[in-house]
């Protein structure tokens, strides 16, 4: 989707407006499908969502490669910081450096902290997201000059959101991973990978970061369906939720450690678990009607190509559903989660 804003006006807005606001001139995104704005469209993988009904509630009703009926969390975060109401994907050929100066997404659906996770569905590994970021930095300096580019790189808010696939697509799906690690050892391995990643982008100039925790991954419709097929009813898989809680505790400790040890860094731990679980347990409180299955198709197991426009079961109003497909929240859920994070962690950067 082309930018609704002229490039020259956008650039002036970024430099003068952000300087006036004084805080965050751009939102820069690393991670998985929770934050991918469409990079997977440009690579050879089955994990894509650049077709309807994905995107039916996005600007212009167009599918962009976001795994949602509309916008995803970085889009709302960008808007809340007075920037554009969306963050473009770096690999999207419809955008250029004038667009990326105000925010850019390097995320790839299906990836994780562990390189083995990205191999499962042939997506962009985290180290490659960093390579794209290095390329972006060089192009930004060529486009704007060192002074303005360095200002954006240093003052930007970096959103880091991944980890769910490391457990669901990797640890619990690949016997080879489980043979190497206990679940606690695997968590420690991922924490080490997260620390290495943060140190790498810190070394490239990043200073303001939000490290996002895991959601209650045992309550994703896909996992509830698996529970049901295994004869355990359609309840959440409590074991997976316990792992998410434990991992989030370790992530929080890592954030504390990095803030103490790395000069000039400001990292916050953005934990969606509590509010997401509240939405799932008490959907009507938040204006939802359905939390156990998703809007798209039967809502039990479909995502990506299984969730296409030909499926007759897709719901008419996604705002009644907590989940859009069997793995991802609706736009409305994302908006509620971002409202929570803006109050509890991201407000530090306003």
Question: What does this molecule look like?
Answer:
The protein is α/β, with parallel strands linked by helices. Helix content is 44%, strand content 7%. It has 13 helices and 5 strands. The chain has helices spanning 7-21, 73-80, 97-100, 115-120, 126-144, 146-155, 164-171, 175-180, 183-203, 221-229, 238-261, 273-281, 331-344, and strands at 27-31, 103-105, 157-161, 208-212, 266-270. Helix 9 (183-203) runs parallel beside helix 11 (238-261).
> What's the pLDDT, averaged over the residues?
94
Please, what is the oligomeric state?
A: single chain
| SS-derived structural category | alpha/beta
Q: Main β-sheet: number of strands, strand sense, barrel status? A: 5 strands, parallel
Strand arrangement, largest sheet? 2-1-3-4-5
- Please report the distance between the alpha carbons of the first and last residues: 28 Å
Low-pLDDT runs: 1-21
* Computed CA radius of gyration, to the nearest angstrom: 19 Å
Approximate strand percentage: 5-15%
Given the C-alpha coordinates, what overall shape results? globular
Helix content percent band: 40-55%
> Count the helices. How many?
13
Give the strand tally: 5
Encode the helix/strand succession as letters: HEHHEHHHEHHHEHHEHH
Signal peptide: 1-21
Keywords: Signal
Protein name: GDSL esterase/lipase
GO molecular function: hydrolase activity, acting on ester bonds
What order do the helices and strands come in, and which of them pair?
Blueprint: H1 7-21, E1 27-31, H2 73-80, H3 97-100, E2 103-105, H4 115-120, H5 126-144, H6 146-155, E3 157-161, H7 164-171, H8 175-180, H9 183-203, E4 208-212, H10 221-229, H11 238-261, E5 266-270, H12 273-281, H13 331-344
Helix pairs in contact: 2-13, 5-6, 9-11
Family: Belongs to the 'GDSL' lipolytic enzyme family.
GO molecular function, one term: hydrolase activity, acting on ester bonds
Protein name: GDSL esterase/lipase
